[in-house]
């Protein structure tokens, strides 16, 4: 059996590396139009940082795992073609700012049709609006010259989270395979299930119809994001009432119907999926006339925007209503720890908010490159997922510095903002940092990871999300 995967990104790369590792008799080729990305996959510096990924790639690369730009050849030869291209939010036209832009998906489908001389199973790995399989089916059928070639479309959404991708792939809660309820559809489902069955117990491989599988992916992300917006909404109420969001979260999380996970209040959720997929869900609802349902889910995104804005306003109001010309150290730019990914990271909105008020931000992140940070702070909203987006000149950047040493970021700063929950932030010598900061020195912990009592002992004025306010912030002394 030969598998090709179109799209060598955060999903295509790690997913196919795991398939190759667990199925040594299957040849797996990951293809991409982005030559640089493929070059990096073939080097010792992979294009994405993911714990455990390099070891797996090293073991399989050249054995039964290959990365190539020769899309036509490998897709043409494959029995199963995974499509794992980006499906960003549309930036213009009907549905702009909400609907999924399926340009890359359609391009991939046209390519599959044009090079296919044998029948194939086409697997939707990308997250797509419900009913996409129907549209893709039409593109495939109408563009293939060979009448004997049959395409069977399956939906196999990916549930991995970044930073834990390899563990999630090795030991997933479930794998979902949706297909048509026809003889050939059931056969295709069986074939894909047999690939996953190499390492995943059969009871964790769920099968469903195509539309259920497509919709389950959007729904899973909407529910997960909803939990974060819910606890973040409560964090605002905690600050106003003297309650502690960690205690509230713990108390509700012990109810087995609610469960303890995904209840950490934060400066806001980020990442390439949550916002995009909820907006996509809202758009699907609107397009079938379900305005109230769309509005309901839209609130999850609104609450997230509110949380980021609330954080910025707290920093400014705590620092005597002005951050003008003040150096503010930003610890963490990635959207979560253990990844170098910055897509939709809350750090972008927080930094932009502070800079708009005149602050000079100095960013430190252990994994994100300066180039990426500059690019993110100058890109218009939703443009980050366009491969051809080139950095525009922006006055924002005059007030941004990126450093490779956290102590240098803190030196002379009026405040430190913790925006990513990197473990190393917990281990710093904050006394030494305090000594070199401008006084009063503030810490705004947007992830609630530091020892706030100890920081207050050192002399910091501490703001923690959803926690009783520092007496200084209440009374001003
Ligand atoms: P990505 O941007 O990292 O990778 C997509 C890749 O597809 C890019 O390298 C791009 O060059 C390539 N591509 C686009 N059109 C192509 C074409 N016609 N031929 C060959 N290559 C092409 O995106 P990603 O994060 O891997 O996400 C891919 C899909 O998976 C999205 O739909 C996303 O919503 C979904 N998803 C992502 C995650 C995640 O954690 N990132 C998790 C689950 C699902
Ligand atoms: C998410 C889904 O978890 C995954 O199943 C899907 O396949 C892709 O989208 P990802 O975005 O990689 O994965 O990371 P996730 O761990 O879900 O975190 C998303 C954002 O929520 C991050 O910014 C994270 O910091 C934030 N978060 C998470 C919180 O603010 N609080 C929490 O309790 C959990």
UniProtKB/TrEMBL annotation:
Its EC number is 1.1.1.22. Keywords: NAD, Oxidoreductase. The keyword Oxidoreductase applies. SMART domains: UDPG_MGDP_dh_C. The active site is at residue 273. InterPro entries: 6-PGluconate_DH-like_C_sf, NAD(P)-bd_dom_sf, UDP-Glc/GDP-Man, UDP-Glc/GDP-Man_DH_C, UDP-Glc/GDP-Man_DH_C_sf, UDP-Glc/GDP-Man_DH_dimer, UDP-Glc/GDP-Man_DH_N, UDPglc_DH_euk. NAD(+) binds at residues 7-12, 32, 37, 85-89, 126-127, 162, 273-276, 343. Residues 329-452 form the UDP-glucose/GDP-mannose dehydrogenase C-terminal domain. One of its GO terms (molecular function) is NAD binding. One of its GO terms (cellular component) is nucleus. Pathway: Nucleotide-sugar biosynthesis; UDP-alpha-D-glucuronate biosynthesis; UDP-alpha-D-glucuronate from UDP-alpha-D-glucose: step 1/1. Pfam families: UDPG_MGDP_dh, UDPG_MGDP_dh_C, UDPG_MGDP_dh_N. The keyword Oxidoreductase applies. It catalyses: UDP-alpha-D-glucose + 2 NAD(+) + H2O = UDP-alpha-D-glucuronate + 2 NADH + 3 H(+). One of its GO terms (biological process) is UDP-glucuronate biosynthetic process. NCBIfam families: NDP-sugDHase. Belongs to the UDP-glucose/GDP-mannose dehydrogenase family. PANTHER family: UDP-GLUCOSE 6-DEHYDROGENASE, UDP-GLUCOSE DEHYDROGENASE/UDP-MANNAC DEHYDROGENASE. This is UDP-glucose 6-dehydrogenase. It comes from Volvox africanus.
């Amino acid at each position: 059996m030969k598998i090709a995967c179109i799209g060598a990104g955060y999903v295509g790369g790690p997913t196919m590396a795991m398939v190759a590792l667990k199925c040594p008799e299957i040849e797996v080729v990951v293809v991409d139009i982005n030559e640089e990305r493929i070059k990096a996959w073939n080097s010792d510096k992979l294009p994405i940082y993911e714990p455990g990924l390099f070891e797996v790639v090293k073991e399989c690369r050249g054995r039964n795992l290959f990365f190539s730009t020769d899309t036509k050849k490998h897709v043409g030869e494959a029995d199963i073609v995974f499509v794992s291209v980006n499906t960003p939010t549309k930036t213009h036209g009907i549905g702009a700012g909400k609907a999924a832009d399926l340009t890359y998906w359609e391009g991939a489908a046209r390519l599959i049709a044009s090079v296919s001389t044998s029948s194939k199973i086409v697997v939707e790995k990308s997250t797509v609006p419900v009913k996409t399989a129907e549209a893709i089916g039409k593109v495939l059928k109408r563009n293939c010259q060979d009448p004997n070639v049959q395409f069977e479309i399956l939906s196999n959404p990916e549930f991995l989270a970044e930073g834990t991708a390899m563990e999630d792939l090795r030991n997933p809660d479930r794998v979902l395979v949706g297909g048509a309820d026809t003889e050939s559809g059931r056969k295709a489902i069986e074939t894909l299930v047999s690939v996953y069955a190499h390492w995943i117990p059969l009871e964790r491989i769920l099968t469903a119809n195509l539309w259920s599988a497509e919709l389950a992916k959007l729904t899973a992300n909407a529910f997960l994001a909803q939990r974060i917006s819910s606890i973040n909404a409560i964090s605002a109420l905690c600050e106003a009432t003297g309650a502690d969001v960690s205690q509230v979260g713990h108390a509700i999380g012990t109810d087995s119907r609610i469960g303890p996970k995904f209840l950490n209040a934060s400066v806001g959720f980020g990442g390439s999926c949550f916002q995009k997929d909820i907006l996509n869900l809202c758009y699907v609802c609107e397009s079938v006339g379900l305005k109230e349902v769309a509005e309901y889910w839209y609130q999850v995104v609104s609450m997230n925007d509110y949380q980021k804005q609330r954080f910025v306003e707290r920093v400014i109001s705590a620092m005597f209503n002005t951050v003008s010309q003040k150096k503010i150290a930003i610890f963490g730019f990635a959207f979560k720890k253990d990844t170098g990914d910055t897509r939709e990271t809350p750090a972008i909105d927080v930094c932009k908010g502070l800079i708009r008020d005149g602050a000079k931000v100095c960013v430190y992140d252990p994994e994100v490159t300066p180039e990426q940070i500059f690019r993110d702070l100058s890109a218009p909203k939703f443009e980050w997922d366009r491969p051809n987006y080139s950095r525009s000149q922006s006055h924002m950047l005059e007030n941004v510095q990126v450093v490779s040493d956290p102590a240098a970021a803190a030196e002379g700063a009026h405040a430190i903002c913790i925006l990513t929950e990197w473990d190393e932030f917990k281990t710093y010598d904050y006394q030494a940092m305090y000594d070199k900061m401008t006084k009063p020195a503030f810490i705004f912990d947007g992830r609630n990871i530091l020892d706030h009592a100890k920081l207050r002992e050192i002399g910091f004025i501490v703001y923690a999300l959803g926690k009783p306010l520092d007496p200084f912030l209440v009374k001003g002394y």
